[in-house]
Write a structure and sequence with these properties.
Elements: E1 3-7, H1 11-23, E2 27-31, H2 34-44, E3 48-52, H3 60-70, E4 75-79, H4 84-92, E5 97-100, H5 105-124, E6 129-131, E7 134-137, E8 142-145, E9 148-149, H6 154-165, E10 171-172, H7 173-181, H8 190-203, E11 209-213, E12 217-221
Parallel strand pairs: 1-2, 1-3, 3-4, 4-5
Antiparallel strand pairs: 6-7, 7-8, 8-9, 10-12, 11-12
Helix pairs in contact: 1-5, 2-3, 6-7, 6-8
């Protein structure tokens, strides 16, 4: 049974989300403020966090930042504001998806399931992916350029893996949204751009490059000729 930590200071929201998630077989734990959320996270090791932005003691942005510092647990953010800036900031901090209040609880459950499904697929992985001196291990959710480990957030890892599965192939922003986020963000292709910018920084000049194909999307190309090609650390036995 997968465990979901629901963090919201509105009790009716927590109980509504709990009702619908438990109907779908999830175990639900709750926290009503940011500090309690971090305590519950350490105590329960949830598989996913539903996180409201407007929290007492420690707001959702700070909680998200701290959760990303501690690990790669998937995060679904709740925001009561209609402005795009909150969602973009949350995604930049490492959230995997967001839902705007008021929301349809069935839609929220669908988002939770989609995030869980993508996480499990990546965890099962398969053989490591190689693009030049880039190596991606989907089971361990680790990536290296040569012998340099990449400190990727969960969604950055998924984005890089999606591009690396078809190196040289141009993927549109809409295709990446569907593949990586598993749901449409009307008018939110900016989400992809933000994450691509972060992935580029972490790949550096010595790794494969994420090229922009104007008016279409992005593709991953191997590092320039003359770059030393390494395959990362030795593959460990399971």
């Amino acid at each position: 049974m997968k465990t979901v930590l629901v963090v919201d200071d509105e009790r009716n929201i927590v109980e509504l989300v709990r009702l619908y998630l438990e109907k779908e077989g999830f175990n639900v734990i709750a926290a009503s403020d940011g500090e309690q959320a971090l305590v519950q996270y350490e105590r329960s090791d949830p598989d996913l966090v539903v996180l409201d932005l407007m929290l007492p003691k420690l707001d959702g942005f700070e909680v998200c930042r701290e959760l990303r510092r501690r690990g790669n647990v998937p995060i679904l953010m709740l925001t009561a504001r209609s402005e795009d800036v909150d969602a973009i900031v949350g995604l930049e901090l490492g959230a995997d998806d967001y839902v705007t209040k008021p929301f349809n609880p069935r839609a929220l459950v669908a988002r939770v399931k989609a995030i869980m499904r993508r996480t499990e697929v990546m965890a099962k992985g398969g053989r490591p992916i190689h693009v030049g001196n880039l190596r991606i291990d989907g089971r361990r959710r680790e990536a290296w350029v040569g012998d340099r480990p990449l400190d990727l957030r969960a969604r950055e890892f998924d984005l890089l893996a999606a591009l690396a599965r078809d190196p040289g192939v141009v993927l549109s922003r809409d295709a990446l949204l569907e593949d990586v986020w598993g749901t449409d963000f009307p008018g939110e292709t900016r989400t992809v751009d933000v994450h691509v910018a972060e992935v580029r920084k972490k790949l550096g000049d010595d790794g494969p490059q994420v090229e922009t194909v104007r008016g279409i999307g992005y593709r991953l190309v191997p590092p320039p000729r003359g770059t030393a090609v390494a395959v990362g650390p030795p593959v460990r036995a399971d």
